[in-house]
Design a protein that fits this description.
alpha/beta; two-stranded antiparallel sheet; binds iron/sulfur cluster; 339 residues; 8 strands
């Protein structure tokens, strides 16, 4: 009998390895929190903007996409904040990279392939692995994966951690099989999120309190201080533009792929697939509470685990969503380190 194999992603396997319970909530129960993480939505938008930019090299099209993504920006502060940031970031990006040293071969490329036991060559009868890369580029005669990242902090630790991005090693292997090309490495395209905020100005009472404080410190017993007014959109945009003119806001890091890892990764994937089948058959997905605050914030399923899976919590704080959103370019929870 020809049984259809289930699609899986690296995100699923990574989550299963980190906390089986979280994997069950997301991939078996298909639950996601009602409140979307704002960082996740912003990262997804920037990925889309970069896809448009590298596909068209037309900044007006990118800015138009941003404008249409925030239709309520004049009424909602959060939308306005992200709108300012996205426009400044993409204008800065276009200014920073007016030309490129690479040629785009593909953008948002998806792939699918078997999960294989490298020790025996046997392929899984239950699962295939699917994924999506931001792009494939050609530099001279070599191919590289293009991987976009947004981060609030870019430092040596961040760049060091790129080495542990084993997902990309596996993706390179699958894309090589799909496309029949050899992938030399990964070009990480990193965009930094500034923490600049639009100035709200002072209330009358805040100004009065500051003025009294200045007078108390002044030898003359007087102060020329003026009330700080809210920063206009134009003033804030000018400040953001100056920030994004700084070279440190954009960084490219090239890593060459090490094939040494590949066999170990395939073997790990195979073992995870066997363990998942066993957990599903027995209906046992145990919790890894050491992972609950792994990203310095509660895991997306923390309220649910704390309430022991209460249906009341599910109905009020979660909704059903099909898995593997990242394959459709929607930016899944898993893809963005939310769980
Ligand atoms: S809250 Fe903790 S135990 Fe529950 S799914 Fe998340 S990481 Fe796992």
């Amino acid at each position: 009998m020809n049984k259809t194999k289930a699609i899986t992603t690296y995100s699923l396997w990574s989550l299963f390895r980190n906390c089986r319970k979280a994997c069950q909530w997301r991939y078996i129960q298909e639950l996601v929190p009602l409140d979307e993480d704002p960082n996740l939505a912003f990262g997804t938008l920037i990925h889309k903007c970069l896809e448009i930019w590298h596909g068209t090299r037309d900044l007006a099209v990118v800015l138009d996409h941003i404008d249409r993504s925030y239709p309520k920006r004049t009424q909602e502060e959060e939308q306005q904040k992200d709108w300012h940031l996205a426009r400044a970031m993409m204008k800065g990006y276009a200014g920073c990279y007016p030309t490129e040293d690479f040629r785009i071969v593909a953008l948002e490329k998806t792939f699918e392939g078997p999960i294989t036991n490298p020790a025996t060559g046997k392929t899984s009868r239950s699962f295939v692995l699917a994924g999506r890369v931001d792009g494939i580029v050609r530099i001279d005669c070599e191919y590289f994966l293009l991987e976009h990242k947004t981060t609030s902090q870019l430092d040596g630790d961040y760049l060091e951690r790129l080495w542990t991005d084993f997902q990309i090693v596996l993706y390179a292997y699958y894309l090589e099989r799909t496309l029949g090309i050899r992938i030399t490495g990964v070009l990480y395209n990193i965009l930094v999120k500034t923490r600049l905020q639009q100035g709200h100005g002072e209330t009358e009472a805040e100004f009065e309190a500051r003025r009294v404080e200045l007078i108390a410190k002044s030898r003359s017993g007087k102060s020329n201080a003026k009330r700080r007014l809210p920063e206009t959109d134009q003033e804030f945009q000018a400040r953001l533009a100056a920030k994004y003119a700084e070279p440190a806001m954009f960084h490219r890091e090239m890593l060459y792929l090490s094939r040494d890892q590949l066999k170990a990764l395939q073997s790990e994937l195979w073992e995870l697939a066997q363990a998942f089948l066993d957990a599903r058959r027995r209906g046992v997905f145990y919790r890894n509470t050491a992972f609950c605050f792994h990203y310095h914030r509660p895991c997306a399923y923390f309220p649910l685990c704390r309430a022991d899976g209460s249906t009341n919590i599910i109905e009020n704080f979660y909704r059903q969503a099909p898995p593997h959103q990242e394959l459709r370019g929607e930016g899944g929870l898993e893809d963005n380190g939310v769980i």
